[in-house]
Input
Amino acid sequence: LMPMVTYFFLIVTTYAFLGTFLFAWATRDQVVAEHRTAHILTAVISAIAGLSYFLIQGYYHDLLVELGTLPSPDDRRTLIRESYSAINQYRYMDWAVTTPLLLVKMVLMLRLSWREQKRPLTILLLADFFMILTGFIGEQQLSFGNEIQVGPKLIWGAVSTVGYVLVLLTLYRLWQQFAGRVQPRERWAYRLMALTTVTFWGVYPIGYILTVFDIDLNWIHIAFSVADLINKAGVGLVAYVASTGELK
Amino acid sequence: LMPMVTYFFLIVTTYAFLGTFLFAWATRDQVVAEHRTAHILTAVISAIAGLSYFLIQGYYHDLLVELGTLPSPDDRRTLIRESYSAINQYRYMDWAVTTPLLLVKMVLMLRLSWREQKRPLTILLLADFFMILTGFIGEQQLSFGNEIQVGPKLIWGAVSTVGYVLVLLTLYRLWQQFAGRVQPRERWAYRLMALTTVTFWGVYPIGYILTVFDIDLNWIHIAFSVADLINKAGVGLVAYVASTGELK
Amino acid sequence: LMPMVTYFFLIVTTYAFLGTFLFAWATRDQVVAEHRTAHILTAVISAIAGLSYFLIQGYYHDLLVELGTLPSPDDRRTLIRESYSAINQYRYMDWAVTTPLLLVKMVLMLRLSWREQKRPLTILLLADFFMILTGFIGEQQLSFGNEIQVGPKLIWGAVSTVGYVLVLLTLYRLWQQFAGRVQPRERWAYRLMALTTVTFWGVYPIGYILTVFDIDLNWIHIAFSVADLINKAGVGLVAYVASTGELK
Ligand SMILES: CC1=C(/C=C/C(C)=C/C=C/C(C)=C/C=O)C(C)(C)CCC1
Ligand SMILES: CC1=C(/C=C/C(C)=C/C=C/C(C)=C/C=O)C(C)(C)CCC1
Ligand SMILES: CC1=C(/C=C/C(C)=C/C=C/C(C)=C/C=O)C(C)(C)CCC1
Output
């Protein structure tokens, strides 16, 4: 049953991103000029995420077919474990492109001048890149038999967390410095978006750690799908609400 | 023959949704500003439904190929029965995303203020989610040999119906409260759209019950395809007609 | 590991081009009228490159699956070497269309009159075509056993370089003649774009020469992916910044 439910979530997530993309695209003229770039980023992020989930569900579909041919539960577990690695690769590809765009979108909400945002943006993007890169290396810490090597994986995870914390700190400092200047709606949106980086971005490191334990990896797929929807489509909706003409 | 006709319907439905999507997309500037969001929802819903039918017809195509290799009518029936389950999964994935959007679209037709619509919208979306979720659980009540377990399936169906009835009641209460305030065209559109939830949405629970009997499941595929077209493309057309500039 | 990382880069590049395409497309009204054509060229170039990388990653995916079935390292190397040729074909198809568009885009930045740009443009396009064509012929210099024939390959490479140098010279002459006339922002953008033809276009001939040596060809895939992103998406961004209303 679990594999079926996971497949269900993967496809639903694909649909939801397709929907978000089309919606953001079609409403780009309803958004005030200052926030148009951010709104288009929502469309871009959703399109990439939609394609990523489309590839993932295709992969998972093949997995399901193969699962059906394996009689022994042991073989099935091994297959799920190996395919987990493969699917995770797709996630990192997605993250490599979409997380920087998400951060840019958040900073844009504060309408800073080019000079003000140059430094914090550079820090954010470098820290984010560092986080994804070292996390990706950590995921590759597999022994010959495709077993996770717990020690190295956790060490790389800790290294990656340094980048993550730096992202959080930079967003917080921006909030302290500039939040007072913008409209209440924009302040609300920035806060909500920045908070997701503490809360729902936190789902990914937790999933990373959980792979070390002996749990059904499908739970992680489901949790990541939901977190992705919140972090990309949800945040996009928040930005949209803060950027429509009615509200300003 | 029946499988061929079913395949025919699946592909025609795919095309029809593609057409609806493109039409709604291209006409988005012809719609008065107040109803633009609803109109874009039609495009989004059609795109998702189109993709969903595209996946379904692909699945069905593989089924047809396999059917051709099975000489015994008994094997063929088993294959159709099992594939019915699989295709149904795709339908639920679609419903999980599109039914809430359909309900939002109906409510938008009444042009309520944010405060007025917050509560009924929340109820609608929760009831709808409950309906789809419990219905989905009901579909999974299969015995080891992939036979439907009639008792549990019907009980879950009854539970699901509670959500369905709540949706109908909420839409009816909205009609009583607010229909008087909007333009005649909008009243007409809301009524028609809300009525489909009683009539053509009813096709799905009937199909759900019929699976328990020994009928050719292809009939259900065909009925669902037609109902989907009415509930998504048809309703989209009604909303379009009520929202064009000429009419207001 | 290397094949996995290469696959990673191919997909990320696909996503990035999809993103660039959508972004350029959606922002086409934010660009001053004089530079709109150039901006749309960015969208066109990104769309073509995105499709090209989508095909390449699909090919590479099949390659990875096949690699998994080959136990001997020797067989694996042969497979990678042969597939390198095939993937390279996709790259030349892309270059045949996108490099002339890139050159046109650069020239457009100088806002020359039709008479002024006719001659240099003709030279640029012919030299570029000559470069790609002879380079393509060079890549086909394979012996019966699919081994690269070093001598002929390098001779054709040298011939191709004639075209390349002619492109560089023409761009330089244009800079000397006309750069003084345009706005500082445009001068900056033209210079940056023309410089990439010396620097990051240079990655391709280097990769061409490296195939002659016994290195892991995946490095070349990765280098080409990064260079493509800089030469197409990066240059597109530079042109965008120089063409937005705020800056002029
Ligand atoms: C800290 C940390 C990680 C953080 C990952 C994050 C924060 C990913 C965010 C993804 C998003 C926001 C996706 C878009 O929806 C890794 C790489 C798992 C490795 C372990 C340590
Ligand atoms: C009441 C009930 C059901 C209702 C399903 C409905 C009402 C689906 C509507 C789908 C639509 C509108 C699709 C879009 O075109 C289920 C889940 C079959 C389970 C049995 C009980
Ligand atoms: C000089 C030379 C070459 C030059 C290729 C170039 C300059 C390609 C540029 C491609 C671009 C800019 C792609 C878009 O991003 C070849 C054909 C490898 C053959 C060897 C000699």
In short: Helices of chain C lie at 2-26, 36-69, 73-108, 114-139, 150-178, 184-198, 203-210, 218-243.
